[in-house]
Amino acid sequence: MQADLIQEARRQAEICNACRYCEGYCSVFPSLHANRAFSDGDITQLANLCHNCRGCYYACQYTAPHEFDLNLPAALAEVRRDSWESFAWPQPLARKFHTHGGAIILALVVGFALLFAAIKAIGSAGGEGFYAVLSHNAMVAIFAPAFLLPLVSIAVGIRRFWREVGGQRIALGDITGAFGRAVKMQDLAAGHGEGCNFEDEDRFSQGRRHVHQAIMYGFLLCFASTSVATLMHYFFDMPAPYPLFSLPKLFGISGGLLLTVGCIGMVALKLKSDRELGDTQAWGGDIAFIALLGFVGFSGLVLYALSGTAAMPALLAVHLGAVLAFFLLTPFTKMAHGFYRLAALIRDAQRKRLAG
């Protein structure tokens, strides 16, 4: 990890530790105030606990032009991004992504080309619906590795993170407490419960919390759709296509809508926010990834709406190309932050349990 980013975040954390004005704002400050000195692992843990709500910045009396020049949200955002890059496997891909948001576009183009080639070379086994364009076996051959390999990469990164932050044996209560905070997105409401200042220093809003929830639950519903369809195909001998009022369709359509709306809302909020209070180096990559995720949801909805038309084969290739790019880039994009933040929340729950 970059020592200068850690050192600057440590300097600011030490000042915050002496001040303690923001003690009740979010999970960061109770954890910060529990320490007298901060190791590199402590700073990494604080950075991944931070949700960048920015309330502490707007409440702080030591921001510029004060000589202390505090900007804790930005300092922690930079360490957070650097930690994902440092722990990622393979590491060079992560660093390239965050500094070159166009890598997503390249991945999409490559994904489209591969899928078009697969459609032409492999062809169909005479199935119905989408399988009339690309056989079920071909889809499995393409997407099973694209799903499993990123999971392995994320697992390696989380293991490295856990060692860095001094994580110990996990108790069931640590997991349930962390999941409870994650599901409610409690830290995006800040300590006062009125929301965060992400959009405007004078305005508290739950907007960022709501779009995060839309994206999270939209993604989970889409994942549930695919999982249920897989079970129906292999265990109940019920291959696709499925009718509208089936679980795969109901989960998929509702998930696609939430994902699309949530990503549009997130981009709008990021465009209105002050970039200097986050990681400016990662801003372009973040926007590109959110756009990709939203496009996955939107293209899935369009594909379903036009599934009986002549446009379906091309739409299928575009949609699957976006999905393929999403999966392959997951360990190196903002998507990884969900895994690291959950791990940080588990570590924080562990800290509270061991301290009490």
Task: Walk me through what this model shows.
With 356 residues, this protein is mainly α. The protein has one domain. It is 68% helix and 2% strand. The protein is built from 14 helices and two strands; from the N terminus they run H-H-H-H-H-H-H-H-H-E-E-H-H-H-H-H. The chain has a two-stranded antiparallel sheet with strand order 1-2. A hairpin with a 2-residue loop joins strand 1 and strand 2. Helix 7 crosses helix 13 and helix 11 packs antiparallel against helix 12. The longest helix is centred in the middle third of the chain and has 29 residues. The radius of gyration is 22 Å and the shape is elongated. The mean pLDDT is 86.
Q: Summed up, what is this model?
A:
The chain is mostly helical. It has helices at about 5-20, 30-35, 40-50, 55-60, 70-85, 90-100, 100-120, 135-165, 170-185, 205-235, 245-270, 285-305, 310-330, 335-355, and strands at about 195-200, 205. Keywords: Membrane, Transmembrane, Transmembrane helix.
Throw out a few tags for this protein.
membrane; transmembrane helix; 356 residues; transmembrane; Tricarballylate utilization 4Fe-4S protein TcuB; two-stranded antiparallel sheet; mainly alpha; NarG-like_sf
